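[Target chain]
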Amino acid sequence: MTARIRPAARGDIDACSVICHDAFRAIATNHKLPTDFPDVAAARGFVAMAVAHPKVFGVVAEDDGRVVGSNFLWAFDAIAGIGPITIDPAAQNAGL
């Protein structure tokens, strides 16, 4: 495993959207709750907005060059918000 954290870019939107959807679906299914992102398109809208916004700093985690997760820092106020943190369910608990 070769882990790398780097700034998120527009080219990461599709991979991050699928991961975001799948990660939230896995959590919701495990806890018998509705998911926050009912489909990849909903996740894509959120991720695309976050990546493009000048007051949001995103990072992606890569494993051997493949995007396996993301996180966002929302710097709208003096106290920033963090999240959502997502990881590909297939990469979960793999030590990344």
User: Anything to note?
Assistant: Helices lie at 13-30, 40-52. The beta strands are 3-7, 56-63, 66-74, 81-82, 86-87.
